[in-house]
Automatic annotation (TrEMBL):
The lineage of its organism: Eukaryota, Sar, Alveolata, Ciliophora, Intramacronucleata. The keyword Transmembrane helix applies. The chain crosses the membrane at residues 7-24. This is Tubulin-tyrosine ligase family protein. Keywords: ATP-binding, Ligase, Membrane, Nucleotide-binding, Transmembrane, Transmembrane helix.
């Protein structure tokens, strides 16, 4: 076929035009050299430094969330090679977060004029997603809008900080000081301003080695006033670091900021803005364990929570990925607080550090005796309500002084041995007399080689031979203590249910099913499936049995049963406060087991730091969801107030835990009386 050359002319012209267009278009796109060392400091770099510092510092120290509203950055794809993306930044393009909220759009360069206000809706998110691949688009900063009309500094909006010979000075002057000394919060507020200037100086001047001769940067600070209650300093803008002449500065009129002093701590009034916490959905995540079945049901009913898929795989190879998910969560429910998990400062989580000390049965009894020695101001002794207890190390041939004391006991009584850290009745043995258990101990110790990998440590307790019975069954009462928050320290008591044996009680019976009420033990009973609802009672059924069997009134039950449990719980958890590490926002529920003898003497059996809030019986299905609901409602409200820097309204808190009894409110303890001065004498 004869093909003429001019047939290719349109194709050739199109190709030339296309190459020219691409060249022309790219020629007008100037991508700056954004090498981290050479490129100018800006808001995004500052924000990343502050976020990094936020995860490293002490939780009670100042951080950028105290003086910035929620901040996002739009980073086009072609710029991501030069910038690290902040942790929560993907929320900007997510239509769920901050829906129908107004944000202020700014440039990331310091001292740039404030841009326009934009409404974050689905159209905004869709449009910005399309711009990710637009090489002509700049990096933008979006901040939750602050009402600028509430600026109370009037004309004194610009506060300057100077770096002179490695010292930081503030230009805060008499006019500003006089203005704020009109109210009682003046000194605290001024302190906060100085702290913010110092904090920003650390990054902008000190970390960048710009404190040479005289360097200056300015911070424009606005003060918002929320609900007429607190004035909170808000950093609206930062001006570029620039050199100034010596003769332009009168150092005598400046206030030196001690750069080496710690930042303000426990300054809860001036923490993050309430709108920073309230305006968005909170991410909630839990570990992949069955115990969170009722937690999940509660979560589905909450309109302001976004449920994230549970974490089921936590092997070491994926720890970094798991940590990232945990750090992005606002509320984290964990079965155990792993020290390798990096929790962010403002995540609310359901575990107290060091709470496991009560799980170890020996530690629990040792702490109880120690509290009695320390807390002599209370008309109460927890040791009186604990069975006589001895500790044994069965892996050693030798006998400690306490072990010898037990071996020399003459009385013949029933005893029970328990492993120190086992749950659910595992490893528990009942002995009909002391000779029986002594022979068992001697045999194990004689066979010991002193080279056991793990010490076989157990406690031996005097068995309660005459327990209070209902319908001829032995029982205990599972109750709960909720530590709603650690700072302030608020503790509630919540009644649970009654656990019973399926067999009638007979102290001479050697079957563990007759002696142990633990659910895991009773499950082994051949009739458990048909009688499981008889092994767990709700309290109204228990109270009816007491009235019928022992002619008790409601007042009798309250005084002889419930008040005794509350008194012991309040006393114990007031003493445990010193062991719990204080974090910004955390809470925990504990399971407590009590028994009574036939004379209504109370016995405190144990504390469980990870109580099972699930079960197969109708009692579990009726009681546990309500316990979970009240625990989460009260704890998340209290810790939300803490994160916002607002006071906890105790009436609101009580309403959220309506069946709870307040045990401790900071320094105030209920149900336990203090010994008056005359009684001490």
């Amino acid at each position: 076929m004869n093909i003429k050359c001019y047939h290719f002319l349109p194709i050739l012209l199109s190709f030339i035009f296309g190459m020219w267009y691409v060249h022309f278009k790219n020629k007008n796109i100037e991508i700056p050299n954004l090498d981290p060392i050479k490129y100018e400091f800006d808001w995004l770099r500052l924000y990343n430094l502050m976020e990094e510092d936020y995860f490293k510092q002490n939780q009670m120290s100042l951080n950028f969330r105290y003086f910035l509203p929620r901040t996002y950055f739009f980073i086009p794809n072609h710029m991501k090679q030069f910038y690290q993306e902040p942790l929560y930044n993907e929320d900007l393009l997510d239509p769920v977060y901050g829906l129908n909220q107004t944000f202020t759009e700014k440039k990331i360069q310091f001292s740039q004029a404030i841009g326009r206000n934009v409404l974050k809706n689905s159209r905004f998110s869709s449009f910005m997603k399309k711009q990710l691949d637009n090489n002509g688009y700049d990096i933008l900063m979006f901040q939750k809008q602050v009402d600028l009309n509430k600026n109370i500094l009037q004309n004194n909006r610009f506060l300057k900080a100077f770096c002179i010979n490695n010292k930081i000075y503030s230009s805060i002057d008499d006019k500003i000081i006089n203005q704020f000394f009109q109210n009682e919060d003046s000194a605290v507020l001024i302190n906060r301003i100085l702290e913010i200037q110092k904090y920003l100086s650390k990054f902008i001047i000190m970390k960048n080695r710009r404190c040479i001769n005289f360097n200056m940067f300015e911070i424009e600070i606005l003060f918002t006033q929320q609900e007429g209650k607190y004035k909170r300093p808000y950093v609206d803008n930062i001006f570029n670091v620039k050199k100034v002449q010596t003769n332009n500065i009168d150092i005598s009129k400046l206030v030196e900021i001690n750069i080496s002093k710690n930042y303000i701590q426990n300054d809860t009034k001036y923490k993050i803005f309430s709108y920073d916490y309230d305006f968005r959905l909170k991410r909630i995540i839990h570990q992949c364990v069955s115990n969170y079945k009722y937690h999940y049901q509660w979560i589905k009913q909450q309109a302001d929570l976004l449920y994230l898929e549970p974490i089921c795989d936590q092997n070491s190879n994926k720890l970094a990925e798991v940590n990232k998910i945990y750090r992005r969560s606002d509320i984290l429910l964990m079965k155990k607080l792993d020290r390798f998990i990096l929790i962010q400062n403002l995540t609310i989580y359901n575990f107290l550090m060091n709470s496991d000390i009560v799980n170890n049965k020996l530690h629990f009894y040792q702490i109880a005796h120690q509290l009695d020695q320390e807390n002599r101001k209370y008309d109460f002794s927890l040791s009186k309500f604990l069975p006589k207890t001895y500790a044994f190390n069965l892996s050693s041939n030798n006998y400690t002084q306490q072990e010898e004391e037990f071996m020399n006991l003459l009385e013949s009584e029933m005893w029970i041995s328990k492993p120190l850290d086992q749950l659910g009745g595992k490893g528990i043995k009942v002995y009909q007399n002391s000779s029986q258990i002594k022979e068992h101990i001697k045999k194990i110790k004689q066979e010991s080689t002193n080279q056991t990998e793990e010490d076989q440590q157990v406690i031996v307790q005097r068995y309660i031979q005459n327990p209070l019975l209902v319908n001829k069954k032995k029982f205990d009462i599972r109750s709960y203590v909720i530590v709603v928050s650690t700072d302030p320290y608020i503790v509630y008591f919540l009644n649970g249910y009654v656990r019973l044996t399926i067999n009638d009680y007979n102290k001479n019976d050697t079957d563990l099913l007759t002696h142990l009420v633990n659910t895991n033990i009773q499950k082994k009973h051949p009739q458990f499936n048909s009688k499981k609802d008889d092994s767990h009672w709700e309290l109204h059924k228990f109270e009816s049995a007491l009235k019928q069997q022992y002619n008790m009134t409601d007042e009798d039950i309250q005084i002889k049963i419930y008040n005794q449990m509350k008194k012991a719980s309040a006393y114990l958890f007031k003493g445990l406060e010193q062991y719990f590490n204080v974090f910004t926002a955390n809470f925990q529920i504990f399971g407590l087991d009590f028994m009574f003898d036939e004379d209504f003497n109370q016995y405190f059996i144990e504390v469980n730091e990870i109580p099972q809030l699930l079960g197969q019986t109708s009692t579990h299905r009726n009681v546990c969801p309500e316990i979970v609901s009240q625990q989460l409602d009260s704890s998340l409200y209290a810790n939300g107030q803490i994160l916002k820097g607002e006071e906890i309204d105790m009436k609101v808190l009580q309403n959220k835990c309506k069946n709870c009894d307040l045990l401790i409110n900071q320094e105030q303890i209920f149900y336990v009386n203090e010994i008056n001065a005359k009684k001490k004498d």
